[in-house]
Amino acid sequence: MIFKSLHTAMLVLFFLVFSVINFYFFSLIKNTISPQEESMLENKEIEDYFRKRDHEKLKEYRGKLKKIQLTEEKEARKKLHFMHCPKCGAEMQIVKLEGIEVDKCSECIGIYFDNEELEKLLEIKFERRKTVFQKIFGLK
């Protein structure tokens, strides 16, 4: 005999019968979905699609809004500090220095250069010194 006791054989038989019944019962349940349940499943899929799409659009709009806010903040800071002295906060004026427009504070008389203005001024000074030496020594 394959099984050592009647008890073991009964347990195996019970397990097999239970498995077959369980499989058959659940396959019947899975195949019998009511039209209402089917429409609920379709609605859930549709809701999931729109929820996902709305989430992506919302994320995109938040990114655009953040860029707009950063631009507005930058413009507000620029309005607040533009043409004000970094040392004392007074109004600055544009003056010509060796043909280059520089910013000069009306209070502390500080002079501030924009991008590449100092290099242009130094080039002009260098060219003047060069021509002075050429005149002195008769060089061309």
Note the main sheet.
3 strands, antiparallel
| Widest β-sheet, arrangement of strands | 1-2-3
N-to-C series of helices and strands: HHEEEH
Distance between the termini: 123 Å
Number of strands: 3
Low-confidence stretches: none
Mean pLDDT: 81
Question: Any idea what the shape is?
Answer: rod-shaped
Question: Which secondary-structure class do the elements indicate?
Answer: mainly alpha
Helix content: 55-70%
Evaluate the radius of gyration. 43 Å
Number of helical stretches of at least 4 residues: 3
In what range is the share of β-strand residues? 5-15%
Task: Note the topology.
Elements: H1 6-31, H2 35-81, E1 92-97, E2 100-105, E3 111-112, H3 117-137
Antiparallel strand pairs: 1-2, 2-3
Overview of the structural elements:
With 140 residues, the chain is mainly α. Among the domains are: 54-83; 92-137, no CATH class. Helix content is 67%, strand content 10%. The chain has three helices and three strands. The protein starts with 5 loop residues before the first helix and ends with a helix.
